[in-house]
Amino acid sequence: MTVAATIQNRSAREERRVIFASSLGTVFEWYDFYLYGTLAVFFGSLFFPSEHPLAGFLASLATFGAGFAVRPFGAIVFGRIGDMIGRKYTFLITIVVMGLSTALVGVLPTYEQIGIFAPIILVTLRLAQGLALGGEYGGAATYVAEHAPDNKRGLHTSWIQTTATLGFFLSLLVILATRVTTGEEAFRSWGWRIPFLVSVILLAVSVYIRLKLQESPIFAELKAQGRTSKAPLTESFANWSNGKIVLLALLGATAGQGVVWYTGQFYALFFLQNTLKVDYQTAYMLIAIALLIGTPFFVIFGWLSDRIGRKKIMMAGCLLAAVTVIPIFQGLTYFANPALHTAARTVPVVINADDCDTADCLAARTLLAQRGIPYSHGPSKGGEPLVLSVGPTEVPGFDSEAYNTALHDAGYPTSADPEQINHFMVVVLLSLLMIYVTMVYGPIAAFLVELFPTRIRYTSMSLPYHLGNGWFGGFLPLIAASVVVATGNIYAGLWYPILVALMTFVIGTFLIKETYKNPISD
Question: pLDDT digits over 349-369, tens only?
Answer without folding.
Answer: 999 999 888 989 989 998 998
